[in-house]
Amino acid sequence: TNTTKGVPVKALVSMEQDEEPATMYSIYRDTEAKYVLFITKNGIVKKTTLDEYTNTKKKTGIGAISLREGDRLAAVSLVKDEPLIIITKQGYMIKFDSMEIGSTSRMTAGVKGITLSDGDEVAAALPIRNKEDAVAVFTENGLAKKMLPKEIIAQKRGGKGLICYKPTDSTGQIVAAALISDEDNLLICGKTNSICVSAKDIPTLSRISTGNQLLKNGKVTSVSKV
Hints:
Elements: E1 35-40, E2 44-49, H1 51-54, E3 73-79, E4 83-88, E5 92-97, E6 111-112, E7 122-127, E8 134-139, E9 143-147, E10 162-163, E11 174-180, E12 185-190, E13 194-198, E14 212-213, E15 220-225
Antiparallel strand pairs: 1-2, 1-3, 2-6, 4-5, 4-7, 5-10, 8-9, 8-11, 9-14, 12-13, 12-15
């Protein structure tokens, strides 16, 4: 049910004693994808052919990415040749062509996707599969807004990006983002509560606006389409 704790991931996947799950991704609807795209908290991106992971016969986990000291995974996606949007906690966003990233082997570190300010880190990474989708961002304290595609200007990989949000003490930093259309519903999960809303309920605003309160009395932890 929605209130039960579930099964520990370590009971399903063989992991080291001090190892914790970082991110999970379904490949069910991505049958045309060619690559696995990794994005780290420090803005490093790496692309490796999907075959390197799906063709293995090992029953235990395999090496996926070589992380630099002090870095960790922020997101994983499957891509073919889509543009990519990276959004940071302090409200910066960069859009660039994922084909700028060369494919490398599994145990490599990757290249710089975005240049971060001091204290900032990646909050979300979104491959653009529908050019008409709006970009929605969600803050720690439950505020949300969406921006039209024309607000998102393409740049070269490795830049600082554009301001897409200005976090304050009352809004909290950005913790999640999604590419959405009016037909979508979104499940916004907090530490103690959650809410399912229509994408139509998220206001369309400019890049510097703060948005509307959608989840009250709880810290947002994740957002997903349902």
